[in-house]
Amino acid sequence: MQPNALSLLPPMLVLISAIITRKLPTSIMIGLISGGLIATKGSFLKTITTITKHLYDQVADLENLYIYTFLLCIGMLIAVINHTGAAKAFAQALRVKIKSAKQAENTSFWISFILGLDDYLNCLTVGHVMQPLTDSFGIARTKLAYLVHTFAGPLVILIPISTWAAFITSQIEQAGISTTNHENVKLAIDPFYAYLRSIPCIYYAIFAIVTALYIMHRSISYGPMRTAELQAKKTSDRTTQTSETPDNAHVSDLLIPLSTLLATVFFGMLYTGDFYLFGGNQNFVSAFKNNPNAFLVLGIASIITLAISLTISLSKKQLTPKKTIPILWEGFMLMWPAVLLVVLASTLGTMLRLDLQTGKFLASTLLHTIKLAYIPFTLYIVGVITSSLIGTAWGTIALLLPIGIPMAHSLALSSSNEASLATVIITAIGAILAGATFGDHTSPIAASGIMASTSAGCKPLDHIRTQFPYAIPPLIGAGIAFLTTGLLLHHPLWIILSSSLSIGILSTFCIIELCNKFWK
Fold this sequence. Notes:
There is one protein chain. The chain has helices at 9-21, 24-39, 44-60, 62-84, 86-97, 101-114, 119-136, 141-150, 153-156, 163-174, 191-198, 203-218, 223-234, 252-272, 284-289, 294-315, 321-355, 358-366, 375-390, 393-414, 421-442, 447-456, 460-487, 493-518. The N and C termini lie far apart (46 Å). The longest helix has 35 residues, at 321-355. It has 24 helices and no strands. With 520 residues, it is mainly α. Mean pLDDT is 83; it is low at 237-245. Helices cover 75% and strands 0% of the residues.
């Protein structure tokens, strides 16, 4: 079908239903059914066929199977760690040095930074590792989910050695940034270099992380999160996923599996990326940036880590063979709801992209006629809206880069402005990536949000409801920064960045302080 305004209806129904019912699977199904009816012009039979086909494609896709394997193995690993008492042992070891809730929150940041290779790895691991410690300090689990989520996607997109780097680089190249001699090339530079130069322009990601650090440092609390935090301090009645803690539980029972997982992912990425020390012909950076096997590496790494954790637990007699199967099943069921939500959300995202072309309609509507100075801001807003509606940063990036880069290129060439072509395109890339990050960080149908809330032990919609007010300051601050960027496009890039970042961060801090004062 031709993209039209009706393509906005399914995601809007999902949002409305989620707010009213607070049942995300039901809300996504409403979105799928309404989207199918719109795409098939009211044919119920074709709607069922369309939904079934997209669901099958999601489940049968190899990369998705690797992701599901990773999620379920991490769930089983978490169950093993909980039953061996490793998480509690880790919390007790940290408790010796950590004396306050603020220090506990800061620890979550450093663990997230260490696990910054992948947002899924980050989301699923940090919450479960930190939960016993944050519980002991009366930190709301929605607050933990916010910290976990903020230090996942927004952090990973800023780290060029991550599972995101290869995808973003490939999309930039497909959009016309390449060193190859071709008529469709818009800018003759290495696409990975273009991504590196755009990183300081991904304002929302930067401001979201700065906001979280500022909120932790100043002990700021407002909106629904304030209510959750006050409630968490009043009650000690928390559900836990642990049973009896064996006497021989040790912090190494957690550190060894985590180190194994991180090392296996790190070296696996180098090996599958043809790093020269492993017999390939790629340097260190290229091994990450040109790697098409990131999800395969995650899946294999999770299996190896689970096997090592089980071996340690059985050898120390923390588990018995008889108890192992029920514990693994418990871990499977722990992660199964998250996997189901990821499948449903991804299916809806595919329908919105391919059948309804929601993003294309937004882009063609909002990017029709604009001036060069408003390119960064407009691309950012389009990215924000698109990613919020379709719930995926990668889908938004894949959709908007092929539209935004050629448009920025054409406007830069036709404009009498003295703005550098490279500067315009680099800031355009940063704006799209920033807008895409927002939806991944806040949309109720984003997979990362579902994983962060599962990891932290709270409901996905409770997480989104309490987190969204904390995303408003960086959202507005980034918008102001992109407006500043557009007005300064004729200046050197270092002036643009220093001015935009300074004004944007200052604006973000002012909004945070206002919210903290008046939003109780």
